[in-house]
Structure formats: C-alpha cells, structure tokens
Amino acid sequence: MARTKAAAAAAEQEILGGSLDAKDLDPKNPRKIRRARRRQAMGRFWKQYRRSAMGMLGLVILIFFIGMALFAIFFANPAATDPTLTKGPVLAPPSRAYPLGTDDTGISVLSLVIAGSKTSLLVGLAATVISMTVGAFIGIVAGYRAGLTDVSLMRVTDMFLVIPWLALAIVLASIFGQSLFIIICIIGFTSWPGTARLVRAQVLSVKEHQYVERGRGLGASDWYVVTRHVLPNVMPVILANTILTVAIAILSESALSFLGLGDPFNITWGTIIEFAFEAGATSIGAWWWLLAPSMCIVLVVLGFTLCGFAFDEIINPRLRER
Amino acid sequence: MGGRAYVLGKVFQAFLTLVLILIFNFFLFRIIPADPVKLLVRSSGHNMTEAQQDRLRHDLGLDLPVFPGQFIAYLKDTSRLNLGQSLFVSPGESVSSVFFRNLWPTLLLVGTSTIASTALGIWMGIYGGWRRGGFGDVSFMGSSLVLYAIPEFVLGILFLLLFGTALGWFPTGGFQSATGDYTGLAHVTDVLNHMFLPWLTLTLAYVGEFYLIMRSSLLDVLGEDYITLARAKGLREKVVLNKHAVRNALLPTVTLIALSFAFVLGGAITVETVFSYPGVGYLELEAIRSKDFPLLEGLFLFFAAAVIVANLVADLLYGYLDPRVRTA
Q1: Please, where in chain B does CATH 1.10.3720.10 lie?
Q2: What contacts A49, CB < 8 A, 6 or more positions away?
Q3: Which residues of chain B neighbour A156 with C-beta distances below 8 Å?
Q4: Closest by alpha carbon to B207, among B138, B142, B112, B121?
Q5: Which residues 167-196 of chain B have a CB within 8 Å of chain A?
Q6: pTM for the full model?
Q7: Correct CATH for B96-322 of 1.10.10.10, 1.10.3720.10, 3.90.230.10, 3.40.50.720
Q8: pLDDT digit string, tens, across residues B20-76
Q9: Taking CA atoms, what residue in B is nearest to A154?
C-alpha cells in the first residue's frame, strides 16, 4: 500500500494524538501516560462533537430527561401516582394546579409522566445492554472465526433480521408473561442482528491489520488478540450503534405497552398512553392525557437519534464530508 | 452467466430461513405452560370427563412424543395451511380462514400506503440529495428525523384526536359505516373515507426512512467517477441526474425498502389498533387480549412468510436490475 508522506504524517498524528504535557510523560509510569492520552482523546472527541448543532440539541434533550428520571428516583412522592390517595379533579384539562391536566382517577398527568420517565429509560438502557452484548459477541465471533462458524451465525442473524420483530415480541410476551424483566429481555434479544452484522464487518477489516498478525506471530492467544486489538477498534462502532439502539428500544417498549403487553405494575410512557386510549381519551377529547407521554417518547427518541448521528459522523470519516 | 445459480441460491436461502422459522415456531409454542386441551375445553364451554379429554388429546396427536412425532405432524399440517383452530377470537374457525378474512383490508391499507411512502420518499431523496444542504434538503431532513422519532401509534392517535374527534372531518374507526347500506360508488367513498387516517399515518411514518435511504444512496453514486465523466462529457445536469445517478441509486434502495417491510407490518398492527381497522393487525390485538395461542402462532407464521417472500422478491429484482450482483 503506497501512502503519501502527508497521509502518513496525519496517520501518525492520529495514533500519537499530538504531544502530551511534560509532567504526564513519566517513562516509569506508563499508566499515567495512558490516562493522559485517553483524556486527550476524549477532549478531541468533545471538540468535534461540540461543533455539531444537532448533536448538542440531542444532548440537551437527553440531559433534561435524565434529570427528570433522577428526580423521579430520588424525590418523587409515590403517593402522587397512587389512585387511592389522590383527590384531584377527574379529567381536568391543564390548569395552574395541574399543569398537564389529570387522568380519570384524578392523578396529575405531570406526576405520571415523571414517574414514567424512570421506567421507560431503564427499559431502553437495559434492553440495549443485552442487545449490544449479544450483537457484539456474535459479530466478533463470526468475523474472527470465519468459516463454518461465520456462515451458520450469519444465517441465524439473517433469520432474526427478517422476522417481523413486533409479531415475534408479541408472541414472546404472550408466552412468557409481562414482567418488566421479561419485556427487557424480549426487546434485548430481538434487536441485536443489526449490531452483529455491523460489528462483523468491522472485525473483518480490523483482522487484516498487520499488528493483529504480528501479535499472533508473537504467540498471543485469541482471547488476547480479541480483547486487546479487535475490541478497542470495534468499540466506537458499538458505541454509536448503542445510542441509536436505545432509541429503538424505547420505541419498542412503547409499542408493546400500547398493545397491552407492558408490565401492568410499572408506569411507563407507553402504559400511560395505553390506559388513556383504553379509557376512551380520544373520543372524549382528553388530549392532555395522551399528548404529554407522547411528547416525552418523541423527544427522548429524537435526542438519542441526534446524538447517535453526531457520534456516527465523527467516527465514520466517510460521512464527514457530506 | 451466473443468473440461474443466483436465483436458485436466493430461493434456497429463503426456503432455509422459512424452515428455521418453522422449527423455532414449533418449539416456542411447546413451552407454553398451559395445556391446550384444557384451554379448548374452557373455550368451548362444555364439561368433559377425563376420558373424553384423553380421547381429544389422542385425536390432536398430543399423546405423541414432542419430537419427532408431533414435529412431523406439525410440518405436514403447516404445509397444508392447516394451522389449527382459533380458541377465543372466533371459536372453532380455522386460523387460516380467520386470517384470510381479515387479510384484504390490511393488503389494501399497507399496499397503498407503502407505494405512496416509497414514491414520496424516493422523490424527496432525489431532490434533497441533488441539492444537498439546500432549503428543501434541510427541511426534509428535519421532518424525517421527527417522523422517525414518532411511534406509528402516537402519530395515529394525534391524527385521530385532531381530524377525528376535534374537527370531525373523518370517521374515527372501522372499515366502513356501521349501517353499511351504501352501494356502488358511495360504498367505495365510504371505505376510502375510513381508510384515509390510518393510510396517512402509515405513509408519513415511513416516508422519512425511505427519504434517508434514497438520499444517502444518491450521494454515494454522485461521488462515483462515472458521474464526473458524464459531466466532463458536457451532458446537461438533468441528464446526469436522471440517466446516470438516479438509476444506479435506485438499486440498493429497492432492497433496503423491502427489508423495512418487516417494520411496516409491525406498524400496521399498532395503527390498525388505534383506528380499530378490521385487518390482520387488529386480529393480532384480539388474539393477544384473549391469549388465543393457535391464532397468535398462525399470525406469526404468516407475517414471517410475508417478509421472507418480500425479501426474496427484492433480491431477485435487484439481481435482475443489476447484473453485477448476479455474478458476484
């Protein structure tokens, strides 16, 4: 591969990440150097990220909702969403006392939405962790092992890719029941195929790099090569995909809940919409009861998607000039 | 010519996927804790003695070992589209006949809305990709992102609240008016009037994704050398776009849109629920509500088969349109 001098210099710059402060360059303390390099890389990433208006908008939205979820965990009063304890007016439109109106048992919709943020985000994040772990594992094994392992794993991946996921999720939820844990598992274990394909493609290209071959030549085990060389190189792809998968997981949870397959004992934005819809909020025109949880879903998904796109643009140089 | 090998390979792949799904489906529904005979007895409302229940168990082949006895019987039945009987939604009716009765409204709805969102998305993608960064592109991009973030059923509920309940422009649900005494043209208008809001919802829900696919595909093609060559030859921009760029950009778009069919079907389930539109999506909801397992199992198989066929058609179409794929 012939490379120009300038490109080589740029690549070197990329690898070395510029010069470090003299105080961090202590040859006796490699860990300190590594930490400093990592800090520098993060700083560089943040500098690029800050330039993306879409990414910053997404970040602001997400911080708002994470704050809401933290508030729900630490400060919210559980009595506010208990239908036996509330004495508010029934189905009142938004007013000064109830900024988002009340539902058919007199609970403030604002309290419902805040309580829902906690579980909706939790389901999205937990399902994503499962999906990423399974997808990354299958992608790495298939790409690294190649041969028959690769072919059979990809066949299974393709099968999961064509299964209409909502129909599958409905079947699984009907069979295994409707606890929060089951919902998380269902979403996690049905949404990994895209990640697996993406990771496999990345592994196939990383595997061809010379340092991997050199490592193996020096007698490194598969485990060492995968954890030290392959995984760090695939990580950015996995991370960008993670952010987008959270959005999909939250959408999935809301769809399942809307069909009545959510956990009836936990409030999520999806279950609020389902209750409102079942109670006939559309025909009596109780728009406030439906609008607030809907807006929350839309904004959170938009936030994750914007962040994911901004992230993708930084790590994927092919997209940068677009 | 690798044409025949390509077609056979794709057909074989689709067949293999279908077999894998059949196996998966079979074992999935054998782990249900509930005893199907007990369920059947409960749905029919008759009292049965233990001996009668054992007879029924034998008639249904449930006394055979799960593997291979029940599995072979299952494959035989499935190949004849005999998917058992619905338990609660339409007690005693065969799953296939319930399915096909509800299929036409969904085909009408999903078919027309997919055509509309594909055509609109591709047009927007060409326009946005060609004038990248222009006003049209930026506003299409913004609305695509927002539409992507809105779940289909939320969009449906918003339309229902606005155009159905508040403004009263369109009926709020059903396939046709309850009185059903319209004939001829009035009947057609009535059906279309009921279909409009779910149709609009499904169309808008997917137009954003198709726009993004077409736009990025066109941008890929516009970076190719043959586009520069076409320009260097002095061809007019319109010719470069329509004859050189768009034709090539359409190729991957065909496959990606077919792949998204699985999601469109999912969207149909929730949107039909919102508008109580009596198609297969609404049928699925009724099956969920009453835990009608044979119906759920059958619907899942039908949905999976539909997506596999859609993908196969897209693959074959892709191979037909682009000879490079066939030989690769």
Answers
A1: 96-322
A2: A55, A56, A310, A311, A314
A3: 20
A4: B121
A5: 172
A6: 0.85
A7: 1.10.3720.10
A8: 888 888 888 777 666 667 666 666 666 677 777 777 777 766 666 666 777 787 888
A9: B17
